[in-house]
Amino acid sequence: MFRPLGQRCMLRSVKAAIISIGTELTSGLTVDTNSAWLALKLAEIGWDVGMHMTLPDDQTAIADAVRLAAAQSDAVLVNGGLGPTADDLTRDAIADAVGQPLRRDPELMQQIERHFQHMGRPMPDSNMRQAEVPESGSGIENTCGTAPGIRVASSGAMIYAIPGVPREMKVMFKLSVLPELAATDQTTRTVVRTIRCYGAGEAEMAEQVADLMTPGREPIVGITAKHAIISFRVIAKSAAAADADVAEIRRRLGPLVFGEEETQLQDAVGQMLLEHKVTVSVAESCTGGMLGTCLTDVPGSSAYFLGGVITYAYDAKTDLLGVPRDLMMRDGAVSGEVAGMMAAACRERFGTDLAVSVTGVAGPGGGTEEKPVGLVWFGLASSDGVSTHKRLIGTHLTRWEVRDRACKVALHLLRRHLLGNSR
Any residues with CB less than 8 A from the CB of 302 and at least 6 apart, and which? Predict the structure, then answer.
């Protein structure tokens, strides 16, 4: 069904429009992360995104937007509004925009029925409308959900409707939409590389590569910060140019770089633990299991993560890790001494090469002038002994942010130890 666009695009790069559907998006109840992800993936295959729109669940508004986008773009990606309920209006709006009635596609009907059979559940009658596509259009299989996608041509553009659920959207886009768009002839091919960093502030890292970020320079180098992870994005017209800038950024930032693309800090730490054949355990207080979750989010983590304890209360720290209660009653549980004892006892209990501990004030209450919200102590136990580390993560952060940052610091301490680097 896909029509090559090369003939109409010989003198320019191909253009795409992204339309996100959902009243929950326009009302601020949900953050639209789909558009950013789609724009990046389109840029990687040389597509220029010239339009982003976010619309409520309004059939007329969606149809008008699709008409406008199709008239100005080579491809239109509409995400969201493909569910079985009355407020899922994307399929009706697209049919309106292209001036065609909806028809029920037997193959899509079978796909939806198979999905419910696989789950061992009866299919509600309302799900049958998810098999409807515009008369000249076709369906796109959803391999991990009940909402098939739609493809249909209009005004010289291809219109793709894909689910709003991020996981379903990403899988469908990668399997079915991306290969079609990547096959389009075009005069430019953009290469996008992302370098992930941790261990210093955004401004400090930006200063070290400032000349690479000069406006108008090719390749383009940009920087973003999200939850304390600093990312540099290199956008180039060739793989060689992108590789050169990536290599230079890595050279200048050294151990601050922990990975590329979608690598998480725990992925990098896990890989190092595997390479060094080192085991680890954790003793957590204020993070309440988040650090153990981070480590076990990585496939294959059973090779190096042996276990952990959540010692939230004083009694738990005493009973499970042997921290003297009178010490905590006198000085509190948030101290270097307590963190060190937690790490040492954890390493002994689990018989691991390394153990890391976390104890702090996550807030929003409980802080004092001496021990404010955001104060976190860490312990790291190894065969070399026990080291303790103090971090003032920030009184301005939410409880979740303090705990998230504490997990990242703990992972960074593990990575720093494995690197033998003191930064």
Answer: none
Please answer whether residues 178 and 90 qualify as being in contact, where contact means their C-beta atoms are separated by less than 8 angstroms.
no
Query: What is the spatial distance between Cα 260 and Cα 323, in angstroms, rounded to a whole number?
Result: 40
Least confident of 179-188, 212-221, 382-391: 179-188
Same fold, 6-182 and 265-419: no
CATH number of 265-419: 3.90.950.20
The pLDDT of residue 45 is 85
Average pLDDT on 364-382 reads 95
Name the token pair of 165.
């659920």
Question: In CATH, what is the architecture of 6-182?
Answer: 3-Layer(aba) Sandwich (3.40)
Is the CB of residue 407 less than 8 Å from the CB of residue 287?
Answer: yes
Angle between helices 336-350 and 314-321 (to 10 degrees): 40
Burial (CB count <10 Å: 0-12, 13-18, 19+), residue 239: exposed
- Residues 379-396: what's their mean pLDDT? 96
pLDDT for the residue 13: 64
Under a CB-based contact definition with an 8 Å cutoff, are residues 175 and 145 in contact? no
List phi, psi (to 5°) of 30: -130, 140
Q: 191-260 — its CATH code?
A: 3.30.70.2860
Within 10 A of 399 (CB to CB), how many other CB atoms are there? 14
What pLDDT is recorded for position 189? 65
Residues 95-151 pLDDT 10s:
999 999 999 999 999 999 998 998 899 999 999 999 999 999 999 999 999 999 999
The per-residue pLDDT for 184 is 78
CA 110 to chain centre: 32
